[in-house]
Amino acid sequence: MTDRFSIISLRQFAQLILDQIENKSQFFGIPQEVFFKPRENDPFRLIRYDQLLETPIGVAAGPHTQLAQNIVASWLCGARYIELKTIQTLDELEVSKPCIDMQDAGYNCEWSQELKIHESYDQYLNAWILIHILKHKFGWAGKELGTIFNMSVGYDLKGILKDNVQWFFEKMGNCAIEKENKINEIKDLYPQINNIQIPDCISNNVTLSTMHGCPPDEIEKIGKYLIEEKTFTQLSNLILHYLVRKS
Asked: How far apart are CA 64 and CA 17, in angstroms?
């Protein structure tokens, strides 16, 4: 088995998912009858980061949340808090993969990233668009998406300040140009997309991932930068814990 991810275009993915749902009532073997169907009176709905979450269930950052099809599959099964795979400036390292192997004892290979940053962004945007399409297609209740895409970045301040990570922040905050191009690419497959309001901001919140044993001073510097300079007021509770403990 290869350790390389093969990604497909939004058009290919949209054709695949629409065909499977319309003709087979499934998505990658997941039958439509087990898709989570949100209701406005669901008792577990909550507000997080001033946004609606239709369920408190989500997926943690990992190799699986790099690919649009995995994000969409988790969403169809009820995940509404999507912690996207951690991105870092060093996106072409050759390290052992997969990141986590649980055949016997679990271990983690640091610095793993299967996709380049621009590929990760492309996958996140594809998933963002398709989830909006599916919510519209199924006629599921509510004007809000009810889903939070949570960015994850690492692993040190020096890397976070690099141009490619800064580009990622900018695009996740405003995907308007790429989003318009992608919509034009698939609107013949789903013409109703012109009636869907898909926000330009994919994510305005972030989780910081650091190495084991990262010095508290470094965590504090990164936390302050993300809050004060990047204005990510919605920061992982883990970082706030470190800041409070140090103070």
From this structure: 18
The confidence band for 247, taking pLDDT boundaries of 50, 70 and 90, is very low
Token output for 224: 């302050």
Quick one: DSSP state of residue 48? E
- pLDDT value at position 141? 73
Distances (CA, A) of 100 to 30, 106, 115: 24, 7, 16
What is the rounded CA–CA span in Å between residue 54 and residue 146? 5
Backbone phi and psi for residue 51, each to the nearest 5 degrees, phi listed first? -125, 150
Which residue matches tokens 């789903």?
Answer: 190
Residue positions counted in the chain: 247
Question: Residue 20 gets which letter from DSSP?
Answer: I
The CA distance from 209 to 219, in Å, is 9
What ranges make up the beta strands (E) of 49-197? 51-53, 58-59, 81-83, 148-153
Question: Average pLDDT for residues 213-240, to the nearest whole number?
Answer: 78
Which position has the token pair 């698939």? 186
> Count of alpha carbons within 13 Å of 54, Cβ hemisphere only?
22
d(CA 227, CA 89): 20
- The 3-state secondary structure of 83-94 reads ECCCECCCCCCC
pLDDT at residue 216, as a whole number: 86
| Calpha distance 80→145 (Å, rounded) | 9
At 133 the three-state DSSP class reads: helix
Q: What's this model's pTM, rounded to 2 decimal places?
A: 0.88
Domain ranges (residues) in the chain: 10-211
